[in-house]
TrEMBL record:
4-amino-2-methyl-5-(diphosphooxymethyl)pyrimidine binds at residues 34-38, 66, 105, 134. NCBIfam families: thiE (TIGR00693). Binds 1 Mg(2+) ion per subunit. Signal peptide: none annotated. It comes from the Bacteria. The gene is thiE. It catalyses: 2-[(2R,5Z)-2-carboxy-4-methylthiazol-5(2H)-ylidene]ethyl phosphate + 4-amino-2-methyl-5-(diphosphooxymethyl)pyrimidine + 2 H(+) = thiamine phosphate + CO2 + diphosphate; 2-(2-carboxy-4-methylthiazol-5-yl)ethyl phosphate + 4-amino-2-methyl-5-(diphosphooxymethyl)pyrimidine + 2 H(+) = thiamine phosphate + CO2 + diphosphate; 4-methyl-5-(2-phosphooxyethyl)-thiazole + 4-amino-2-methyl-5-(diphosphooxymethyl)pyrimidine + H(+) = thiamine phosphate + diphosphate. GO terms for cellular component: cytoplasm. Residues 4-184 form the Thiamine phosphate synthase/TenI domain. GO terms for biological process: thiamine biosynthetic process; thiamine diphosphate biosynthetic process. It comes from Massiliimalia timonensis. This is Thiamine-phosphate synthase. Pathway: Cofactor biosynthesis; thiamine diphosphate biosynthesis; thiamine phosphate from 4-amino-2-methyl-5-diphosphomethylpyrimidine and 4-methyl-5-(2-phosphoethyl)-thiazole: step 1/1. One of its GO terms (molecular function) is magnesium ion binding.
Length: 208
């Protein structure tokens, strides 16, 4: 599920429809999709989630909602991802129940272990590299990523500025995959970009 984890950001699409961009990314080989919408109204967010849930279900990949248990439950999405500043992971797990996927962002071994104990199914660790998506994101060292992967028994996905040029530098970290935003959705040929990233992510994990 974590091998190539795509996170949406419509600001990179330059007027293209998000649903069509997601279909191209799926054709290219993404294994999970997170719908992240910071600027949509709740009604528009739900409408987007319902549409993308149909697309991801047809493709057989999970749809994760960023930071909204409510939208997840109403749309039938497969899970929720929360950051350290969002609702506590244990509370999210309680609201979701046992069957939904819970992802949690972590930057330290302590945060990672706490998230796992609270019921997280996977961790997002980063920012590994400089990222224009979150300008205030603090960088995480490769050593910290490796330490987190060693400390937990749940999958870990590396996120933050990951792109073709640097993905293979994560080899040996123990990460189970890479999460990308602009490396897919800012590209003119989204399908081709996803195919290339999927290949690199497979190589990275093979060398973990």
């Amino acid at each position: 599920m974590m091998r190539l984890y795509a996170v949406t950001d419509r600001t990179w699409l330059h007027g293209r429809e998000l649903t069509e961009a997601v279909k191209e990314a799926i054709a290219g080989g993404i294994t999970c999709l997170q719908l992240r919408e910071k600027d949509l109204s709740p009604a528009a967010f739900l409408e987007e989630a319902l549409e993308l849930k149909r697309v991801t279900t047809a493709a057989g990949i999970p749809l994760i909602i960023n930071d909204s248990v409510d939208i997840c439950l109403k749309s039938g999405a497969d899970g929720v991802h929360v950051g350290q500043g969002d609702m506590a992971a244990g509370e999210v797990r309680r609201l979701l129940g046992p069957d939904k996927i819970l992802g949690v962002s972590a930057r330290t071994v302590e945060q990672a272990l706490a998230a796992q104990k609270a019921g997280a199914d996977y961790l997002g660790v980063g920012a590994m590299f400089g990222t224009s998506t979150k300008l205030d994101a603090k960088k995480t060292s490769l050593e910290t990523l490796h330490a987190i992967c060693e400390a937990v028994s749940i999958p870990v996905v590396a996120i933050g500025g990951v792109r073709e040029e640097n993905l293979l530098s994560l080899s040996g970290s123990g990460a189970d995959g890479a999460a990308v935003v602009s490396a897919i959705f800012a590209q003119k040929d989204i399908c081709r970009a996803a195919k290339r990233l999927r290949d690199l992510s497979d190589q990275m994990v093979a060398g973990k």
